[in-house]
Amino acid sequence: MNQPLIVTAAQKAGPKTSLAVGGIVLLMLLALPLLSLLPADSSLQVSAYTLTLVGKILCYAIVALALDLVWGYAGLLSLGHGLFFALGGYAMGMYLMREAAGDGLPAFMTFLSWSELPWYWAGTQHFLWALCLVVLAPGLLALVFGFFAFRSRIKGVYFSIMTQALTFAGMLLFFRNETGFGGNNGFTNFRSILGFSITAQGTRAVLFLLTVLLLVASLYLGWRLARSKFGRVLTALRDAENRLMFCGYDPRGFKLFVWVLSAVLCGLAGALYVPQVGIINPSEMSPTNSIEAAVWVALGGRGTLIGPLLGAGLVNGMKSWFTVAFPEYWLFFLGALFIVVTLYLPKGIFGLMKKGGEQ
Amino acid sequence: MRGVPLPAARPEFMLEPAFDPNRDAGSSRDAIGLGQRVIGKGLDVRHGTLLTLEDISVSFDGFKALNALNLYIGVGELRCIIGPNGAGKTTLMDVITGKTRPTEGKAWFGETLNLTQMSEVQIAQAGIGRKFQKPTVFEALSVFENLELAQKTDKSVWACLCARLSGEQKDRIDEVLETIRLVSSTHRQAGLLSHGQKQFLEIGMLLMQDPQLLLLDEPVAGMTDAETEFTAELFKSLAGKHSLMVVEHDMGFVGSIADHVTVLHQGSVLAEGSLEQVQGDDRVIEVYLGR
Fold first, then answer.
1. Calpha distance A225→B160 (Å, rounded)
2. Which residue has the higher pLDDT, B17 or A251?
3. Does the distance separating the beta carbons of B155 and A250 come in below 8 Å?
4. pLDDT of residue A72
5. Where residue A241 falls among pLDDT bands split at 50, 70, 90?
6. What global pTM score does this model have?
7. Which residue range(s) make up the domain with A124?
C-alpha cells in the first residue's frame, strides 16, 4: 500500500502489456508464412530466404527455452545441447534421405560403395518411425547420461565440461564416414517430405507454422512447469540442494526429468530445422554451437521464459547481419557480448526491462 | 543369529520408492522372530527409545572424529549436546542424517530402521529433520513456498507435477507461519529475511516436515535475546510430541531448555545428566577450562 501509485500502475499494466506484445509477435509470426504464399510481384511478399531465416531462428529459440529449463531453473549449465538438437535433426534427415533416394540407397552410401543399409537405418523410410527417433535418440541419450551423472552427484562446472565433451565426442563420431551418417558432408539434397516438394512455398509455410506451434507449445509447457510445485522444487534444487534432500526430496529424479524433457525439446527443434534449412552435418554438434546457445540464454535472462527467446532472436538476428557486413569480427563480437552480459547484466535483457518497467 | 539370512545391501535406485517404514521389517535386530509381531503403521518405538547409537566410530584419514560413541534418545525427549570445538557434534549429526557413513557401529531409528543403510533422502522421509548450523532456506522462493516445499506429503516427481495445495495443507502452513511469527512476511522472498528470521523459517520448515526427531545445529546463533527466549519456549512446547536433539554453545540457552545434557569430547560421550550434574563433573571442568 505504501508504494507510489506509478509503481503499482506499472506493475498492474506489466502483464497486460507483455501479453499484448506477445500477441502481436505471435500474429506477425503467423502472418509471415501466409504472406510468403503471395505472388512474387506483390509488394507484401515475404521471400523464401526471410521465411527460412526466421524459421531457423525460431528453432534456435526453442533450444534456448529448453536450455533455460535446465540452466535457469534447475541450475544445470549444459554446454552440450547442440548434440540433442543435431540428433533430432539427423533422425529427420534420415527420413528425408530415404525419401530422396526412393528405393535405392542414399547417395553418400553409393559413393562409399555400400551395398546395404546399416541396421540402424531400418524403418527410417517411414515418417512415423523417424518421428519416434526424433524423440528417442536425444531422449535416451539424455536419460543414460543423466542417470549416471546425477547418480554420481556431478554438479556445476564438472557437469558443464562433461556435456561439452559429450557433444564433442558426438561430433567426432559423426565426422567418420563409417558411422553411416554421411561423414563431414552430413545429409543434404533433400527432395520431398511426405510427398510434398521440400522447396515448394506451401511446404515451407507449413513447416514454419509447425515451428511456431512447437515454440508456443514449449512456452506453455515451460510456463506450466515453472508455476507448478515441480518448478519450485527445481528452483530449490538450484539454490540449496542439501536442504532439499533433508526435506525428503530425491534430487536425482527431478533433475533427470527436466534434463530429458529439455533434450527431447531440442530434438524436436532440430527435426523442424533440418527440412527448412536443407542440410545437417556434424558441425551442428561443434562445442561452439552449444556455447552459443548458452549465450542466448544468458543474454536474454535465465530463469525467465521469455528472456531466452529474446536472446536467441537478438543474437541470431545480429549474427545474420554481422556475418554479411563484417564476417571476420562476428566471433569477437559474440565474445564481447558474453563478457558484457556476465559483468553488467546478470539477469539479462529481460531483467533490465523488468527493472526499467518498475522505475 | 547364525542361519538368519542377512538382507542384501539395497542397490541405489535412481528413483527411490516412497519410503515404507515397514519395508525392512524382519531384517532388523528383531529378525529373530519378534519383529513379525509388531508390523504396524509408523515407526516402532516399543522400548521408548527413538534413536540408538552404539559404538559409532567415524574416521577421516586416520583421524577419529567419533570414537565408539553411545547415545540413546528417548521418545519426546529434549536432549542438548555440548562440547568444545572439534568434539564431533556436527559429525554426529552427519551420521544420523546419512551424510557421513560410520566406519563402525550401529545406528537405529526406532527399533527397526537401520540408519547406516539408508540414504539421506530416505532418512528424511522416515522422520528425521535437520537444521543446519548456517541457516539454509530456499532464498529465491517466498516464505510461504519454503514451507510448502517442506510440508510432509508425497515428494515424488510425479506428485510434484500435479500437486495442488488442499485447504487443510494451507491451514497447516498458516498455523506454522503463526508459530514462527512470520505471518507479515508470508509472501516475502526468503533471501530478504534477516538472519534471525531465516533461522525461524528453517525451524518452521522442520515443523512442516513433522519429523519424529529434530536435529538442531546451533539454532539460536545470531538471534537477539528476545528471539532466543522465544525459541526456548518453542522447543519446550515441541518436546513431548517430538524428540529434539540440540547442539548449542550458548549455556544460558541450554540451561533454559534442557532436562538432559550430553557432553562430547574427542568423539565420545564424556558425561551425561542434568546440566548441574554435568557442570559439577570434574572431567567436564577439566575439558572446558583445561585444568
1. 10
2. A251
3. yes
4. 93
5. very high
6. 0.87
7. 48-285
Which residues of chain A have a CB within 8 Å of the CB of B120?
Answer: 245-246
Give residue B7's pLDDT band: very low, low, confident or very high (50, 70, 90). Answer: very low
Chain A contact probe: residue of B155, B158, B165 with most A CBs at under 10 A: B155
B39 part of a folded domain: no
CATH code, B207: 3.40.50.300
Does the pLDDT at position B40 exceed 70?
no
Taking CA–CA distances from A237, the nearest residue in chain B reads B138
Note whether residue B194 is domain-resident: yes
Please indicate if any CB of chain A lies within 8 Å of the CB of B15: yes
Would residue A35 count as lying in a domain? no
- Cβ contact B140–A257 (<8 Å): no
Does residue B9 sit at the A interface (CB-CB below 8 Å)? no
Q: CA-to-CA distance for B118 and A180, rounded, in angstroms?
A: 47
Residue whose cell numbers read 550401529: B106
Residue B192 CB partners (closer than 8 Å, separation 6+): none
A8 Cβ partners below 8 Å, 6+ apart?
A: none
User: Minimal CA–CA distance to A117: which of A139, A146, A97, A134?
Assistant: A97
Residue range A158-173: average pLDDT?
A: 96
Minimal Cα distance from A238: which residue of B?
A: B138
Contact residues on chain A for B17, CB-CB shorter than 8 A: none
Give the chain A residue nearest B124 (alpha carbons).
A248
Pick from A29, A77, A13, A21: nearest CA to A209: A29
For chains A and B, count residue pairs whose Cβ atoms are closer than 8 Å: 88
In this predicted complex, what is the ipTM? 0.84
Q: Roughly how many angstroms between the first and final C-alpha of chain A, as a whole number?
A: 17
**Number of domains, chain B:** 1
Q: Does A113 map to a domain?
A: yes
In a domain, B25, yes or no: no
Rounded (10°) CA dihedral A103, A109, A115, A120: -80
pLDDT at B15 over 60: no
State which residues form the domain around B147: 49-99+120-289
Strand, helix or coil for residue A240? coil
Whether A245 sits inside 8 A of B205 (CB atoms) is no
Please give the pLDDT value at position A357.
Answer: 66
Distances (CA, A) of B209 to A221, B16, B32, B86, B204: 30, 19, 33, 30, 9
Is residue A271 a part of any domain in this protein?
Answer: yes
Provide the pLDDT for residue B212.
92
In this prediction, residue B8 has a pLDDT band, given cuts at 50, 70 and 90, of: very low
Best mutation site among B15, B20, B94, B133 for testing chain A: the one with the most A CBs within 10 Å?
B15
> Within a domain: residue B109?
no
A250-254, A324-328, B112-116, range with greatest mean pLDDT: A250-254
Lowest mean pLDDT among A10-14, B194-198, B204-208: A10-14
B155 vs A248, A256, A257: nearest CB:
A248
Per-residue b or e along A134-145, where b marks 16 or more CB atoms closer than 10 Å to that residue's CB:
bbbbbbebbbeb
> Would you state the cell numbers that stand for residue A303, as one nine-digit string?
530463469
Contact check, Cβ <8 Å, B15/A252? yes
Residues of B in contact with A150 (CB under 8 A): 14
B291 pLDDT band (50/70/90 cuts)? low
Number of domains in chain A: 1
Looking at the complex, report in whole angstroms how far the Cα of residue B30 sits from the nearest Cα belonging to chain A: 27
B142 by DSSP, 3-state: which? Answer: strand
The answer to whether residue A19 sits within a structural domain is no
**Per-residue confidence (pLDDT) for residue B6, from 0 to 100:** 45
For residue A242, list chain B residues with Cβ-Cβ distance below 8 A: 132, 136
